[in-house]
Amino acid sequence: MLLHSALLALGATLAAAVQPLEVQGQYFVNPKTGNRFQIVGVAYQPGGSAGYDKKAGRDPLSDPDICLRDAALLQIMGVNTIRVYNVNPDVNHDKCASIFNAAGMYMVLDVNSPLVGDSLTSYNPWESYYAAYLNRTFAVVEAFKNYPNTLAFFSGNEVINDEKTGATVPPYMRAVTRDIKNYIKKHSTRPIPVGYSAADVRSILFDTYNYFQCSLKGDDGDMSKGDIFALNSYSWCGESDFKKASYDQLVSGFTGNSVPIFFSEFGCNEVSPRVFTEVGTIYGSQMDTVFSGGVVYEYTQEKNNYGLVDMRDDGSATLMKDFLSLKAQYAKLNFTEIQGKKAPSTAAPAPPVCDSKLITTDGFNSNFTIPVLPPNATEIIENGVSPKPVGKLVEIKDWKVKFTVKNPDGTVISNLAVKPLADDGVNAPGTNTDSGTQAGTGTSTSSSPSASASKDAAARPGAVVLPAVAMGALAVLAAL
Ligand SMILES: *[C@@H]1O[C@H](CO)[C@@H](O)[C@H](O)[C@H]1NC(C)=O
Ligand SMILES: *[C@@H]1O[C@H](CO)[C@@H](O)[C@H](O)[C@H]1NC(C)=O
Ligand SMILES: *[C@@H]1O[C@H](CO)[C@@H](O)[C@H](O)[C@H]1NC(C)=O
Ligand SMILES: *[C@@H]1O[C@H](CO)[C@@H](O)[C@H](O)[C@H]1NC(C)=O
């Protein structure tokens, strides 16, 4: 590992690092072991969308004390990945990235933010596709490309959420994906996969997938193709099952995938507290050849009520019942087996060739002419972002959590700390067994809900947060 050894040569003492992962065909693979990697993740955005505050220089990975608290709790939970939606490329993430790295966790990062000019818009996407916006996405690449635990970038999240946006956005999303991939190719010492995180709107989900994954001839073809595909899916609610939650449709729709597919969000809260019985299925034999795991929505409790941990203004926190039930579900999995599967030696299925016949929904874009780079963006890709916000692993001296964290019953968890892992270590249940944490039960008394697969786009947690909610969350964070 280039960066790591270079720093060691300078005499810096660093915690061990996770092995950077690669995409090989339809799977994430650890190149050192040849094993497949299954994402066992949690969406991490303390403060909601407002946890990203450009003026205050704050984002979810800017406060090391908060990251240390959360890395310790997520380590106890047993996860190996966090998804972070809104990062500010110009703030320093070295400590937080180093903490999550040492805790054995990868990061999946969205290159966008909800602020105007920081993302491709759903309507009139051509108006938001310009050099300054691309510069922002490239700056996120610069800020995170050197961390060994950077797993992937999302070029967009739920920008397409109905037929109408499906008519306009697809070529632009492929263009942004192409541009970020070109930037990485030119400026990163290792390939980092780039792809789209889709809303699970079944009527257009597979059109979206096909549009982004198909193989296109010409210069733009390979570069504009997504390296990964992910979906935010809330169709498994309460005590459901593979069929009732319509996971069977997902598996049959994605079978033969040429790129890794995973849930970029899951964890329906229509039945509360949540029981997370989908965990066993997601990592089980019905899904694991097609899917590469998933990310639970979400770490902190916000107004939309999907939290695992209730965070207070003073940095103290209380675990919620959902934390314990999710932990119990992970504990039931056999991680040795799940993370120990060899990547297949045979080539992955080839992607379909881009063709308007792939698109089945009337009105969904079936034009595969990808927009050309906007004026001035060529120079940025050529010369790199200026100035470059370069990130690097740094030494962390103290692994003890500085805030009080309580169990759901109010008892205080004592001696809470991150347990730094050995080189190439990846977190799993049992790595950090804090004796003060309550055992989860994983059982439920709730009744089975109907498998309502389609939710209103506006109610989806991945959708852009309304200003009122954002302001509320901002006030909470401002008090920190
Ligand atoms: C490009 O991004 C860098 C890093 O965030 C920033 O300092 C610079 O001002 C940006 N340039 C343009 C033209 O937007
Ligand atoms: C977990 O899986 C490994 C590898 O397949 C196997 O050797 C081991 O016995 C399993 N452990 C349990 C508790 O089933
Ligand atoms: C496809 O899109 C390109 C670029 O926007 C446009 O020039 C072309 O006319 C479109 N083709 C069709 C068949 O609509
Ligand atoms: C784009 O390039 C033109 C011509 O080189 C220049 O005048 C303009 O300032 C540039 N715009 C940006 C945003 O860099």
Automatic annotation (TrEMBL):
Keyword RNA-binding: no
Species, as recorded: Staphylotrichum longicolle
UniProt-annotated stretches for the region Disordered: 425-454
Protein name: 1,3-beta-glucanosyltransferase
Similarity field: Belongs to the glycosyl hydrolase 72 family.
GO cellular component, one term: side of membrane
EC numbers on record: 2.4.1.-
Classification via InterPro entries: GH, Glucanosyltransferase
A GO biological process held by the record: fungal-type cell wall organization
UniProt signal peptide: 1-17
Keywords from the named record: Glycoprotein, GPI-anchor, Lipoprotein, Membrane, Signal, Transferase
SUPFAM superfamilies listed in its UniProt record: (Trans)glycosidases (SSF51445)
GO molecular function: 1,3-beta-glucanosyltransferase activity
